[in-house]
């Protein structure tokens, strides 16, 4: 087998020299171009989009002109880009909502990194890489999850306690978890409601349900406990679990008692469902009725307007019974004026046009004549009209 020294001897010596020189050049290039300045930021999870993370330009000692001229951009290997660089102000802001549990799961501390690239072809190292690390602080955004006892909708599960149980008898254990981290995941347990509070207690930190006193024959067979599970966050979140306990020595006794218990719950749920459905039906009926009434009124008004628009009836003006001319005194009825013309054969007519009656009345009224004179003048006018008509 040919050794490395033999390969570099003779004609392959210059080849080895060039290879080593190339390796040294690549090393120097990465050393110069890979100058990394790392900065860290710590932010809480669930921050809104556009929230400020940090001033990158100030923390890296860069000028805003350098960011713009270098076309600074964020490079990350992940599919989701959680942050955004605003080169006009040199600020780093939240681009997408960050969920710590989705990003890191149970891993603590939770963080992610990315690179900021700056281009400058006029310098020896044309690309500058700035590494930024973001630490995600956990927020209490998740409530505890109860794993045991399993909450079922239809069937009723019960834990049996014999009547001969002593003080401190372990009935069952409530198991719950919180996906938050740190003190937000510290859980505490306490009895919220119970059929007999003096009979059972629950451990504050372990969730164990034990008897407080000796079980007697006077204790009811059916016991129900409501256990409240709280975390240590601010504000705290909680979950409630129902634990059914049967105080009995035999299984048939427990079965008969809790069968009646489940039937009672079923009847209560059926009644509640019936009332909810009835209320929904009444509200829906009232809503539909009001809607139809409004639509009917709108249609009726629209049809009335269409009928009046397409109607061909003549418009008859209305005159008051005592309507008079504007030149009259308002005490006489409306006066019509007639003009009578003579024919071509009639040359002996006394008058060509008859004077309007309203003018006569006005002249008489304006002359301040007495009532007999007005009557006489009107009779003379009527006699002239009758004579004129007799000639035609």
Measured as a percent range, the helix fraction is 25-40%
Order of helices and strands: HHEEHHEEEHEEEEEEEEEEEHHH
Q: Identify low-pLDDT runs.
A: 1-7, 25-37, 323-328, 349-377
Quaternary structure: single chain
Assign an overall shape: flat
Mean pLDDT over all positions:
75
Reported for the largest beta sheet, the result is: 4 strands, mixed
Tally of strands? 16
CA gyration radius, whole angstroms: 53 Å
Structural class: alpha+beta
Number of helices: 8
What is the strand arrangement across the widest sheet?
Answer: 1-7-6-3
Distance between the termini: 157 Å
Which range does the strand content fall in?
15-25%
Sum up the structure in keywords.
392 residues; 16 strands; flat; disordered N terminus
Overall description:
This protein has 392 residues and is of the alpha+beta class. It is 34% helix and 24% strand. The protein has eight helices and 16 strands. The protein has a four-stranded mixed β-sheet with strand order 1-7-6-3. Strands 9-16-15-12 form a four-stranded mixed β-sheet, with helices on one face. A hairpin with a 4-residue loop joins β4 (83-86) and β5. α7 (357-366) runs antiparallel to α8. The longest helix has 60 residues, at 251-310. The radius of gyration is 53 Å and the shape is flat.
Can you lay out the helices and strands and say which pair or pack?
Elements lengths: L3 H5 L4 H21 L2 E9 L7 E4 H5 L3 H6 L3 E3 L7 E4 L4 E4 L5 H5 L5 E10 L7 E11 L7 E4 L9 E4 L8 E4 L1 E3 L9 E8 L5 E3 L5 E4 L10 E10 L6 E10 L3 H60 L46 H10 L4 H21 L1
Parallel strand pairs: 1-7, 9-16
Antiparallel strand pairs: 2-5, 3-6, 4-5, 6-7, 8-11, 10-14, 12-15, 13-14, 15-16
């Amino acid at each position: 087998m040919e050794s490395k020294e033999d390969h570099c001897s003779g004609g392959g010596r210059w080849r080895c020299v060039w290879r080593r020189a190339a390796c040294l050049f690549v090393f120097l290039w990465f050393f110069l171009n890979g100058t990394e300045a790392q900065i860290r930021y710590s932010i809480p999870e669930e921050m809104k989009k556009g929230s400020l993370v940090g001033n990158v330009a100030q923390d890296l000692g860069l000028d805003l002109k350098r960011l713009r001229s270098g076309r600074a951009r964020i490079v990350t290997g992940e599919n989701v880009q959680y942050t955004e660089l605003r080169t006009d102000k040199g600020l780093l802001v939240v681009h997408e909502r960050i969920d710590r549990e989705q990003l890191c799961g149970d891993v603590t501390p939770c963080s992610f990194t990315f690179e900021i690239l700056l281009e400058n072809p006029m310098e020896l190292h044309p690309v500058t890489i700035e590494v930024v690390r973001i630490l995600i602080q956990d927020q209490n955004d998740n409530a505890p999850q109860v794993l045991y006892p399993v909450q079922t909708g239809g069937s009723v599960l019960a834990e049996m306690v014999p009547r001969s149980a002593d003080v401190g008898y372990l009935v069952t254990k409530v198991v719950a978890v919180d996906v938050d981290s740190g003190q937000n995941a510290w859980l505490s347990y306490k009895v919220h409601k119970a059929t007999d509070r003096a009979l059972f207690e629950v451990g504050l930190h372990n969730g164990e349900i034990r008897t407080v006193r000796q079980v007697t024959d006077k204790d009811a067979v059916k016991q129900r406990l409501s256990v409240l599970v709280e975390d240590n966050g601010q504000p705290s979140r909680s979950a409630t679990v129902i634990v059914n306990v049967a105080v009995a020595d035999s299984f048939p006794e427990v079965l008969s008692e809790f069968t009646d218990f489940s039937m009672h719950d079923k009847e209560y749920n059926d009644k509640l469902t019936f009332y909810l459905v009835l209320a929904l039906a009444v509200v829906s009926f009232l809503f539909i009725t009001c809607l139809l009434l409004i639509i009917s009124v709108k249609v009726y008004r629209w049809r009335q307007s269409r009928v009046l628009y397409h109607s061909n009836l003549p418009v008859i003006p209305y005159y008051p019974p005592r309507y008079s001319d504007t030149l009259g005194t308002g005490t006489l009825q409306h006066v019509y004026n007639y003009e009578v013309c003579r024919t071509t054969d009639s040359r002996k007519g006394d008058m060509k046009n008859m004077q309007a009656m309203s003018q006569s009345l006005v002249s008489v009224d304006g002359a301040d004549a007495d009532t007999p004179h007005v009557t006489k003048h009107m009779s003379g006018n009527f006699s002239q009209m009758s004579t004129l008509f007799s000639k035609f």
